[in-house]
Design brief:
With about 425 residues, chain A is of the alpha/beta class. In chain A, about 35% of the residues lie in helices and about 20% in strands. In chain A, helix 5 crosses helix 6 and helix 13 runs antiparallel to helix 14.
Amino acid sequence: MTDLLFVNASQVVTCAGPARARKGAEMRDIGILTGAAVAVSEGRVAVIGAERHVAPAYEGATRIDCKGRVLMPGLVDSHTHAVFGRPRFEEHELRAEGHDYMEIAKRGGGIHSSVRDFHSRSAEDLLALSTARVATLASYGTTTLEIKSGYGLSLEDELKALRVVDRLRQASPLRIVATWLGAHEIPLERRASEATRAEHMGDLISTILPAVAGQGIATFADVFCEPGVFTIDETRRILEASRRAGLGLKLHADELATSGGAELAASLGAASADHLAAVSDAGVAALAASDTVATLLPGTMLFLGKSRQAPARALIDGGAAVALATDYNPGTSPTVNFPLMLTLGVSQLRMTVAEVVNAATVNGAAALGLAGETGQIAPGFAADLALFDIGDIRELPYWYGAKLCVGSWRAGRPCHPYEPELS
Amino acid sequence: MTDLLFVNASQVVTCAGPARARKGAEMRDIGILTGAAVAVSEGRVAVIGAERHVAPAYEGATRIDCKGRVLMPGLVDSHTHAVFGRPRFEEHELRAEGHDYMEIAKRGGGIHSSVRDFHSRSAEDLLALSTARVATLASYGTTTLEIKSGYGLSLEDELKALRVVDRLRQASPLRIVATWLGAHEIPLERRASEATRAEHMGDLISTILPAVAGQGIATFADVFCEPGVFTIDETRRILEASRRAGLGLKLHADELATSGGAELAASLGAASADHLAAVSDAGVAALAASDTVATLLPGTMLFLGKSRQAPARALIDGGAAVALATDYNPGTSPTVNFPLMLTLGVSQLRMTVAEVVNAATVNGAAALGLAGETGQIAPGFAADLALFDIGDIRELPYWYGAKLCVGSWRAGRPCHPYEPELS
């Protein structure tokens, strides 16, 4: 594998520091270097320094001219549902007309329509759709992508989902992390009574989880903990069993209503608690006192037309680690534009530029248990890099809605190919 | 000029109808055709119909294969400040930290820093910057672009601005409409007293306006009518003089505070009243009873972190004509992604998909006095077209933040070149 030498970046944003999430005031530092070159060897960052010092040792390296642009860690999108079939565009307008998420779900629309659609598709079909979508996500700067199952629900279809994610993981130029979200929703046919609901809980814990864990195709387990879906007690049972089965833990917590999900995530030592638009003060305090990353998904609230956003300032000022992610999914956040989430971080969540950059890199990596591998440009870390067509990192959230990524690399291999001569 | 024949669109969204704005319930109809071909001759739409009926008469035409995508009128962005120098990205974070627009302006930042920067740049420099930015705007689907002056303020620099817009108009593949916004702000050196302020009003009306009108380089006049900037009375005086000088009228109205700008726009018969986040019920009623287009700029409120948006539903339900635009400018809305405004229209303003499409095409055209020329795909109209990489028009606002335009044409000539083989 050829060495690489990145030169002529206007800024190299390193996010360098300890191999863990940045908490609270630590999020204000991103390590901006000017005049720095980055040498990559065997897919890892080898040296960062002034070009005249670095270049002599890398004469045989492929020289990549950044042409005055900003080089930074590839973006880490730590919360997506990127394997799905049909986009649910008709619901966007239904919501504008006043039908809310729970109402659409109760009618058998919403997630249930994605589940029916998912059941009807072959793994090959889903793989083809997902491969194209993942390439599009990469073209906006993402190099690490978490993907959850959860449109399968049944044993057979959850395994289908995770096998598709696994094939993506093997074939895609991106770094892909699989999460089993079998507890995304109760199947319609089992919502009828407490007995069938209990039966489903039994299947999740005693049948589906062991099968998923046994096949080694998921790194994390996640539960949609929300009134009307999984209760706090059910969530705890599923996650404790998942932990015993060797999976890391994540949690959809306090998205639409306050239910104590954040506190549960912290008490379980989950890698992340996600959404949090309705988190309580106690939940904020619990996360701040823990190593659980608070993963905020402001695009979802924007797209759903909610005026409320998660209390990012309270979380950071309280000392928590905050990550940002797209929540890319066909119902509530069909966006491929991760940098737009950084705009929302600044404009809507009142985060600083450094905070949103850490939230999309090192803290996203920590939310995936990858804080020692990706999310920063530092010696020994994977050469997961993104190049943006801007001269100052503050322009990344600023030019909102634009497609600014002109190239990216995962472990030194092209992810979204960079063609300096064309751009 | 070769004839063109567009075939194999999944949908042709025509927006066809009378050559005027769609008001109220009329906005719900956009005329979606399936299986339709569009023939273009001499830069104008000649025929729309089933391919087998249209094709025989256009055997010599260049055949454009839409490959199952959606063909629609090119987007009409009727409110931008696209000729500027330095981007003001540092203010984004300042606002996140609690400094508001008026506060930044009073410190000599905000628009005044754009004015100082504008004064320091040559016309050549501004033309080069603007040419690249306009091409980027085109790459998201815009084929008609209004551009305002207003960072010059002085006679010399306002003429410089409008001459740059005029050169863009002549050289750019887009349809460009120039608006004189000399009354964008009071120059700092003239804010000191009522006397110097009156002096500036005199200059605007007796010196700058006649020079602008005399050179024939502006179609519209616009005023930033807002407490602390131009009062209602000052705005009326400037616009009445502008009308006498032969210019069409526009108005920045009720953006941050309610001042009666909407009522003034309606009473003057302005082509549009723009912003309107703080419009009163009386203002809504006045617009609904008039032919003035209510131009809403939801990206600005999003970017500024305001929770309030203009009352689109009240305007449409009351019978007004609503347009959407980007407000592309370096301080409060640096977005090139017009389709993202359609997302905000549905998600934040509770408009239907048909309403946002009309708002971005035929009603944008009406806001520029071009309702008989562009904004619809109908025989005799200019062949201003945009092709989006979606199969259903509802996907345009749905895939929020994505760059979906794969080609556009203005009067039948490539605007954002389409390369079917590459896409």
